[in-house]
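= Protein in question =
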Amino acid sequence: MIVPLLHQWTKANALFKPPVINQCRTIELKLTKLWHKAVETSLGKGNLARKNEFLHTLDTLFDILTYKCSIQLCSESNCSHSGKRENNSHIDCGCPREKKIPVLELEFIKAQRTKAEGQGSMQIGSIDYSETKKQIANAKKREQIREREQKKKMKSEEAIQREEELCQDVYHFFDTEAVEVILKIRGTLIDNDQLGDCSFHSRKVPPINVNATKLSELVDLSLEVLEPPLTTSLTSQEMRNLKETPMQVPKWPSHTQSVERCVKMVTEAAGHVYSHERRE
């Protein structure tokens, strides 16, 4: 029963499919309800007003459109476009784009909804193959765009999830010995509110002793030792507290792939700023 009905609608316009029209289950329920009314009317049940209402239903469109927005013809609103364009109707519709009635069919739907005794100003004719082919191609293109966007979103979510999993583990960055070394760098007379040295320093990489016989001789530690930037914003008292509660630092992924990704993101950002691919 539903297949011939859907064929008639798609014959009028290939865009007449869910969600523009009702889902098959909803259409089945509407047909079943209408059939029960027909049986009751044929058996003489109900008053005259109810019978006339049912007969009027038979003369009007079996409307399976999702939204029932009001349509007005240009001729009814004294529109200046009347008779000058392919579509001679207006619709005040705030429906989602995917559920809107095709603009090309507004006049047809208006005629079908207002027809009397089975006759309307417009009827379904033969299929417009060129228009149908164009509609199918556009629908296919929109579906491909939607699938691409969905895949891109899923790929982005998977990348974020992987990075979050990589950063879930933490490790204690500063142990008791490291805290003592940092406090020693700050000096013997340490104020509890004293911060680390945040001034600029030219760091020198000590040469490697290739003749070393043990690990402690590999690098000459007699050179100037500077406090790591990570702790310079902590007071001396906060540094002492790290002995009891060590600082937890995530295990940030640091490998070739992450560096390449960073370079790529910077390149893309530069492209958006300068409207072309450029690194600054």
